[in-house]
Amino acid sequence: MTQPQQESLFTRYMKAFEDSEQHTSSCEPCQNGEECPQGAPLHERFARLQDAYRERQLKQR
Question: Would the N or C end of the chain have less CB density within 10 A of its end CB?
Fold first, then answer.
């Protein structure tokens, strides 16, 4: 049996964006720039993966 392929950085980045946006769309504090306890980890993960993806893109130029 083969192991599943690890998700690419881009795929994880886009999933984190989706999770962050989905949460924000239904969370009034996050909509007002006040991260809630549930939203903070989602937004932080998105930011961390966005930085990593952008850094990788810059290195490939």
Answer: N
